């Protein structure tokens, strides 16, 4: 009588995986993940947990502008972290600003990922002139700094369509700008992985079986290149958030009526020497903390997926 073998479920395989084992042993990674999760939950629930809606003009009173935090002289208990120059509650704008910053960061990385995968896979798999053309194009873009590309593209958008159009579609514009500026990082990494993978026996077997190139590229080679992609994506989310903050600080990002963390810092910078330091300091602390925990998670992922340097 044959005994049936019970195949473990995906959840059971995940619980017994090395990934979760190393995660539980790394307190920095666990702490960073918890902090990031808190930021993500606050960002998602900001319309319900924020004391006020900074987009609702009827809830803003200009007479409440530049109020200090509640624990300082002149503070108001209704505004725990104080108010900005327009009378908006800083805590509420931080909640909504985190939501915008994270949205732009993840969408920009998704665009980078799409462009990088398509270009990197094509260059590595087909080789020859296709590889030379695509990689030279990537090299040209890499010769410019990310901020330079972002500033140039942003300025062209504003000059071509006008400031009003740019303000209306600022989030989409920033996603496109940051996504276009950073895709070569993915393309070069994926190309290197594809060059190593396409010489292996399973790829040759797929070719012999008559599978077409797109199927071999996306169903056979790409899944084996996901580890470096995941590591890059984690770091790139932090870079995208910082790029958005820098562009907003320079006046090329989100408009004043759509507060992101970068635009809040930019607004407060004009008042920091007049004593209203809280407008810049609190959003700045949140931005630095958010970027730091994402980078720490990225460093941990890099070590986990590279057993040669991971020591647990």
From TrEMBL:
It is found in: Cell membrane. It holds the Pfam family BPD_transp_1. Keywords: Cell membrane, Membrane, Transmembrane, Transmembrane helix, Transport. Signal peptide: none annotated. Its main location: membrane. One of its GO terms (biological process) is transmembrane transport. The keyword Thylakoid does not apply. The chain crosses the membrane at residues 28-49, 104-128, 140-159, 165-183, 221-242, 277-298. It is a multi-pass membrane protein. Residues 98-298 form the ABC transmembrane type-1 domain. The keyword Repeat does not apply. One of its GO terms (cellular component) is plasma membrane. Belongs to the binding-protein-dependent transport system permease family. This is Peptide/nickel transport system permease protein.
């Amino acid at each position: 009588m044959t005994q049936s073998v019970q195949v473990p479920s995906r959840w059971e395989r995940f619980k017994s995986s090395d990934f979760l084992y190393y995660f539980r042993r790394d307190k920095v990674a666990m702490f960073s993940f918890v902090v990031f999760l808190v930021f993500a939950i606050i960002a998602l629930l900001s319309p319900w947990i924020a004391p006020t809606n900074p987009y609702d003009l009827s809830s803003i009173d200009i007479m409440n502008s530049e109020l200090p935090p509640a624990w300082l002289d002149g503070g108001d208990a209704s505004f725990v972290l104080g108010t900005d120059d327009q009378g908006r509650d800083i805590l509420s704008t931080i909640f909504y600003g985190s939501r915008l910053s994270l949205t732009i960061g993840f969408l920009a990385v998704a665009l980078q990922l799409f462009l990088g995968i398509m270009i990197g896979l094509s260059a590595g798999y087909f080789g020859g002139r296709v590889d030379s053309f695509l990689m030279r194009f990537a090299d040209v873009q890499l010769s410019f700094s990310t901020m330079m590309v972002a500033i140039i593209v942003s300025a062209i958008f504003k000059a071509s369509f006008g400031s009003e159009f740019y303000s209306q579609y600022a989030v989409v514009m920033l996603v496109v700008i940051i996504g276009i500026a950073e895709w070569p990082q993915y393309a070069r990494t994926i190309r290197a992985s594809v060059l190593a993978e396409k010489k292996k026996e399973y790829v040759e077997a797929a070719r012999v079986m008559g599978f077409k190139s797109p199927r071999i590229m996306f169903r056979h080679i790409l899944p084996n290149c996901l580890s470096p992609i995941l590591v890059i994506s984690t770091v790139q989310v932090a870079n995208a958030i910082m790029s958005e903050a820098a562009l907003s600080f320079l006046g090329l990002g989100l408009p004043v009526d759509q507060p992101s963390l970068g635009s809040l810092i930019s607004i407060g910078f004009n008042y920091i020497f007049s004593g209203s330091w809280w407008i810049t300091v609190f959003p700045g602390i949140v931005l630095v903390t958010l970027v730091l925990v994402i980078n720490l998670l990225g460093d941990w992922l890099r070590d986990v997926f590279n057993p040669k340097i991971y020591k647990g």
